[in-house]
Design brief:
The chain is of the alpha+beta class and about 675 residues long. Among the domains are: about 5-190, Sandwich (Lipoxygenase-1); about 310-420; about 450-555 and about 565-630, P-loop containing nucleotide triphosphate hydrolases (Rossmann fold). The protein has 10 helices and 22 strands. The chain has helices spanning about 155-165, 170-180, 310-355, 365-405, 475-495, 510-520, 530-555, 585-595, 620-625, 660-675, and strands at about 5, 10-15, 15-35, 45-50, 55, 60, 65-75, 85-90, 105-110, 115-120, 130-140, 145-155, 185-190, 430-435, 445-450, 455-460, 500-505, 570-575, 600-605, 625-630, 635-640, 645-650. The strands form 3 sheets. Strands 1, 2, 3, 4, 5, 6, 7, 8, 9, 10, 11, 12 and 13 form a 13-stranded mixed beta sheet that branches. It has a 5-stranded parallel beta sheet with strand order 17-18-19-16-20, with helices on both faces. Strands 15-14-22-21 form a 4-stranded antiparallel beta sheet. A hairpin with a 6-residue loop joins strand 21 and strand 22. Helix 1 (about 155-165) runs antiparallel to helix 2, helix 5 (about 475-495) runs parallel beside helix 6 and helix 7 packs parallel to helix 8.
């Protein structure tokens, strides 16, 4: 199944031999840049273009054409290459458009050698830009991925190449266009449009066999290959402007819902194709704010929202993920340096002990002191680098945290004092904070995409953390439900008044105290369900809802839902599971966890997994399908890059604060006005 990407989204690549097909509706130049792990292009021999179309693992078209096929063999690229960028540019010196805003949106697709489409991307929102980085194939943990970039440059190809650190950017860009102008690469006009093929293809149709270019630059992993003419690692040294920051991939336990995909464009016979994304602006994103000039010898001052994005919300989201990735990398480097120092000291001490002569007199003692001194020096140097990076990240966190919108902010952020019920759902939600032992004072917001793709499980049992040992089982259950209430209130607060409905099941009524803020504000769909009858009623209604919506969607008859059907997102909060649940109810919960998220029904369970052990392996798929959160700090989240165990902390309201009641009152008031 093809992944239709939006800007910033990535997708794994299973195959390493790929074609990237490009369709632009007007003659363009297609090329590829090879970058190191920072995305830096170190020389002209790292760029494939019409005048020099062949590099190890990459072959581009020799023509300026409306359609292109680029061949990529990721096993053949050099070990020093970590990124392959696919670039498109409008040629100069020949008659034609001068900006992408005046031509159909370019379409790129990544395909296998058999033509099977893996991922596609329509580059919308371009205006005055004449060059664009369409895709990026990148290596991550030994695997390749493709990312939709869509970064345009009004300064053209020279500005694009300079932004990737190429010293000879202007000369190379001029040489490429001169080759096109002089006919070294001939210009091929766009084929005439054909009638619609049912809306599946988003590239201009035509009889020419030009490729439907697929975006292969979303893969961040570069397999090792032949070194090529630039053999070995790229030369060291400073490079130009860093590439635009893109969102980091989330940890393994994070939930990142796929961004909304492009709807297939409708192509009336002989008419233009509508490339506009239903939930994206059609203008280029405004430039991010720039930091004040730094003092000589001092790092640049951080600025909130300095990542790329179509809005300040998206910029802050990308910036937070960039901070997460930076912290993961600098900590991994520090741990690696310490491991190296430990290994080196052990080796040197073993050599001392293996020589009988060094064990006599003071020679052995001196050798041991020398080994320990080297170890301390290496560790101290690594710690200095880590402390420098942590100080920079802490300074960035100090300016980012106050600038976060309510969906991303902690409950003690002053932004809640000016809270108003939003008109649109945000792109993400904060569920807590993350930190590592080496940086205990630095907290990174834990953001998950909306709508939720997986249910949530608030663990009310012994979490294994030190903090959990200070509470008895009853206190942990209360804390778990308090966390669930705080998460539920946040979900209610960030959705429009008519787009989120909450149901609660509390079979024994044991959570009345914690649930009081939700009940008191009147923001629930009904009183918390108690007893076997209440559990049966709520589960029956929600499972029936899932069945109805699934049938309507599969039958293409969404308009046939019953009159008055509530189309809002639904959240079911289940307290004290599995007490009060029979086998039928357990199966219904599993059904909701598996099938519900796809049709807007989400599950939040407050449960101790050990309490459910009596059901045997029956519930194992349920736990695996939910995202585990804890009511106290616990190091149970792992990132996919270096395997750090991140400590998760829930975001709870400060003691004595009335912010929760104030926010819920606003939600209730907005709902009341809606119903009038």
């Amino acid at each position: 199944m093809t992944a239709e990407l939006v800007r910033g989204q990535n997708h794994p690549l299973v195959e390493v031999r790929l074609e990237i097909r490009v369709s632009a509706g007007t003659p363009i130049v297609a090329g590829a840049t090879l970058g190191d792990e920072n995305g830096t292009v170190h020389g002209v021999e790292w760029v494939a273009h019409p005048g020099s179309p062949l590099l190890p693992g990459v072959e581009v078209s020799r023509q300026a054409a409306a359609e292109h096929r680029l061949a990529v063999d990721l096993d053949a690229v050099a070990e020093a290459v970590h990124r392959v960028g696919v670039l498109l540019a409008l040629p100069t010196g020949i008659a034609g458009p001068t900006s992408f805003g005046s031509v159909p949106a370019p379409f790129v697709a990544v395909t296998g050698l058999d033509g099977t489409e893996v991922a596609s991307y329509t580059i919308t929102g371009l205006t005055a830009e004449s060059a664009v980085v369409a895709l990026e194939l990148y290596r991550r943990q030994g695997a390749w991925k493709v990312r939709a970039i869509g970064q345009g440059y009004a300064g053209g190809l020279a500005e694009l190449l300079a932004d990737q650190g190429l010293p000879q950017a202007r000369q190379l860009a001029a040489g490429i266009f001169k080759a096109v102008e002089q006919g070294m690469a001939r210009s091929v006009p766009a084929p005439p449009p054909l009638p619609s093929d049912g809306g599946r293809s988003r590239q201009p149709a035509g009889p020419a066999p030009g490729p439907d270019q697929s975006d292969a630059s979303h893969n961040g992993q570069h397999p090792q290959g032949n070194p090529g003419p630039y053999g070995g690692p790229p030369p060291s040294g400073p490079h130009g402007t860093q590439p635009a920051q893109t969102p980091a991939e989330p940890p393994a336990d994070y939930v990142t819902a796929p961004a909304p995909t492009n709807t297939p464009p409708q192509t009336p016979a002989g008419g233009p194709i509508n490339y506009s994304h239903p939930r994206r602006q059609n203008t280029a994103p405004p430039p991010p704010p720039t930091a004040p000039p730094a003092q000589p010898g001092q790092p640049a001052q951080p600025v909130a929202g300095d990542a790329t994005g179509w809005s300040m919300e998206e910029r802050l989201y990308n910036q937070v993920w960039g901070m997460f990735e930076d912290l993961a990398r600098t900590t991994a480097a520090y741990r690696s340096a310490v491991d190296f120092a430990d290994t080196r000291m052990e080796k040197e001490l073993d050599e001392v002990l293996s020589d009988p002569r060094s064990r006599i007199g003071g020679q052995g003692d001196a050798a041991r002191e020398t080994a320990r001194a080297k170890h301390s020096q290496l560790v101290d140097q690594a710690r200095q680098v880590l402390d420098r990076d942590l100080a920079q990240l802490a300074a960035e966190a100090d300016v980012v945290e106050p600038a976060l919108p309510p969906a991303y902010a902690r409950w003690d952020n002053p932004v809640w004092h000016a809270y108003r019920v939003p008109m649109e759902m945000p792109m993400a939600l904060r569920l807590g904070d993350l930190h590592l032992p080496e940086s205990d004072g630095l907290r990174i917001p834990m953001l998950i995409r909306l709508p939720l793709e997986r249910g949530l499980w608030i663990d009310s049992g012994r979490t294994g953390s030190v903090d959990g040992t200070f509470f008895d089982s009853h206190e942990l259950r209360r804390l778990a439900l308090d966390s669930a209430v705080a998460h539920t209130a946040r979900l209610l607060a960030v959705h429009p008044a008519d787009e989120f409905t909450v149901h609660v099941i509390d079979p024994a009524g044991s959570g009345a105290q914690s649930l009081a803020p939700l009940v008191r504000a009147g923001v629930l769909a009904g009183p918390p369900a108690v007893g076997a009858a209440g559990v049966t009623d709520v589960l029956a209604r929600l499972t029936q809802r899932v069945d109805l919506v699934q049938m309507a969607v599969r039958g293409g008859a969404a308009d046939s839902l019953p009159p008055g059907f509530d189309t809002s997102q639904q959240l079911l909060v289940v307290n004290d599971f599995p007490h009060g649940f029979d086998d039928r109810a357990v199966n219904q919960l599993r059904y909701l966890a598996d099938e519900g998220p796809a049709v807007g029904v989400h599950l939040m369970m407050v449960a101790d997994r050990e309490d459910a052990a009596g059901y045997g392996p029956l519930l194992d798929p349920l736990w695996r399908g939910l995202m585990r959160l804890t009511p106290v700090p616990d190091d149970h989240l792992a990132d996919p890059w270096v395997g750090h165990a991140w400590t998760y902390e829930p975001t709870l309201t400060p003691p004595g604060s009335r912010v929760l009641d104030t926010v819920l009152a606003q939600v209730a008031q907005a709902r009341g006005q809606r119903d009038l």
